[in-house]
Amino acid sequence: MNKLNSSALSVVITLLLIVVVIVSSLVTTNIVQQLEAEEQKKIELWAEATRQFSLADEDDNVDLILRILEGNTTIPVYMVDMNYNLLLSRNVLEPKNDIDAFYVEKINKLRATQEPIEVRVSNEVMQYIYYEPSSTLRWLSYFPYIQLIVMLALAGLAAIALLMVQRSEKNSLWVGLSKETAHQLGTPISSLNAWNELLKATYPDDPLLPQMDEDIRRLQMIAERFSKIGSQPTLEQHEVLPVLQTAMDYMRTRTSSKIIYTLHAEEAEHCQAMLCVPLFEWVIENICKNAIDSMDGKGSITISLQHADNHLYIDIADTGKGIDRRNFKRIFTPGYTSKKRGWGLGLSLGKRIIENYHRGKLFVKQSQLGIGSTFRIILKQSKDC
What we know:
The protein is an alpha+beta fold. The protein has 2 domains: 3-138, Beta-Lactamase (2-Layer Sandwich); 232-383, Histidine kinase-like ATPase, C-terminal domain (Heat Shock Protein 90, 2-Layer Sandwich), CATH 3.30.565. The protein is 54% helix and 18% strand. The protein has helices at residues 3-55, 63-71, 99-113, 135-202, 209-228, 240-253, 277-294, 346-357; strands at residues 77-80, 86-90, 117-120, 126-131, 236-239, 259-264, 272-275, 299-308, 311-318, 361-368, 372-383. The longest helix is centred in the middle third of the chain and has 68 residues, at 135-202.
């Protein structure tokens, strides 16, 4: 699913949800208005039945009037006298304490919000009836809002599912690309090995052959690293300092002498962690390469190893151009790069290797434009130092 199709699908789903909510709200509002009118008529009938009951003589048949009065089982009603003192109430959920104060407050609120239904008992006596919507009507009036919340929740879940599908597709793309790269490197590396063995037999004393051996071994390691992307690597317990030293030595021999490398252990020389060494070295090298690019081939890279609270902290600091704070998280996004060349995959893959495979953290600890940056890796310490 490409980005254009995903965006179009998101727009369609959003429009459908808006239409559903609007139509549902209109229908519900219409139903609520009809029920309000029906309840108004019921209360008016109940008020008239109350008046007739108060005027009835002992010989009058009041069965129908009583059935009307008892028929209201859902609508809360309040009958008050001319001084707005409560005479009776029906279908009202009373509190356990301060009942009188409850009714006083309730009647005052109703007086402020609605006109009462008048019940004239005699020329001198007038009673008033107030009422509230039934619980069914109240819940129905909330229904559009409940539906809107449900729709928004469904839209959120749909968006999350869509993002997960897109992320899965991206992951599959990068994994496939990595494994295909490892596969394509296999054949030329095998050929280089064969040619190197032939050169050893022909020129056994050539001083460049050991260096060629080292470069071929390095190519094999790179191919192995790419082949491990997407697979769960095997983690083994290693001292971290020698691994950092190996990665730094490799970078030192392949960069300008104007780059000064420094490694500080700070009482963590023998600290250990569970590592996949080829992948972990690749992360360190990649961060160093980015630092070298940001320094234009001249400056210093300092790696510090510390331990505290059963965790190891590896800081990789450079004296490069620095990173804008707004890009601290963005630089780990696949495809993001500030260089003219490159795919922008190094830091993204590095973060995945540290956080998904090693269960650690990789982030920009601090950076200042024109001064430099510090990346921090946090790993769980596997053994006391």
